[in-house]
Amino acid sequence: MTADDLVSLRRDLHRKPEPAWREFYTTARIVDELESRLGDDLDGLHVGPEAIAGDHRMAVPDDPELTHWYERARDAGVDPDVLERLEGGYTGAVAVLERGDGPTVGLRVDIDALPRRESDDPTHAPTAAGFRSEHEGAMHACGHDAHATIGVGVAERIAASDDFSGTLKVFFQPAEEVVGGGKSMAESEHIQDIDALLAVHIGLDHPTGEIVAGIDGFLAVSHLEAEFTGESAHAGGHPEQGRNAVQAMATAVQNLYGIPRHNDGKTRVNAGVVEGGSAANVIPDEARIVAEVRGETTDLMEYMKGRTRQVLRSAARMHDCEVDIETGAEAPSATSDGELVSIVADVAGDTTGVDRVLERDELGGSEDATFLMRAVQEHGGTACYVGVGTDHPGGHHTATFDVDEDSIGHGIDVLAGAIERLGDESV
What we know:
35% helix; 8-stranded mixed sheet
């Protein structure tokens, strides 16, 4: 695969972004690339339900939403046989290359987009070059189009390499943005024999030419949804007959931000969605909060989750309302293993185009690659999360985010080199 091929693939994926569990076109396109470029060198390709443990999917959208995106992918002309295997939102793939005796190495890349509109400013590079999102309201605003491209590029590089002995599995993971897909891959059979796992993210406020060999500082995260129920009444005529669900919700929001922080490490809480009511003259009988909590460790996240549930229940009781609380998607914390960090740093230091290597840095956010990392570590393997710097004009998750496409090659070179080193050292 040439540099131009890589750019073409990345731009095609950027042009057709798909949010979590709707990555129908994206998965089918990845499958086509792998099959056409690797041919007989591809020893296994597990697609959709074969790639994940479906019972562990989290934050799956409803059927009408899935159907809309499924039909959109069909209209785009993807292979109907592949598309059929993805029906119901069972997206993602695992590619397998067997190259003799040696370790089983995994590479995890995520493939989903964000539900936000992309800038149409003429100075925005995708707009100027004609590959801006064709799906209004969806955008690759975090570089997962580049991640998928890196995954294909690494697979092709290892397939052609004489320096790797062992097995490579590339995990093309769906639904990272809603921390909904990592667990389903971590619970699949494909992770159980991994000796060393590499995960990758582009950007993270590191410039082109900079590599972070091992990223730590993952905040464990949990999403919660609270539905407050009261009783409606006329706000002017009989306000005393109502039980105000919005008042309960507002109390909860205020008190969530008053939860005491913990001496053991970083904690976070955020009420990201608050809504309720129907008219100015009606005491609202329904209101809703969608919130998230985070912690530097999984235990700290659980502390914040417990206190959040306490606040929500107390606010409901204060205003004579009921509240139903559901826990949504979650992801644990994780740490990159020093053994792999050293290998990545050593390879990166000898990679053309890389002019600075950081051994460690902190993410400061959450990532469901941690499910796969911890699964490998619990089975006695090692795991490492690698940062590939890229110049991006807008911050992650913004309408003007873009990647410096030269960094895609840097990522492939470093990751393929580290994988080769792992296979070579086992001989």
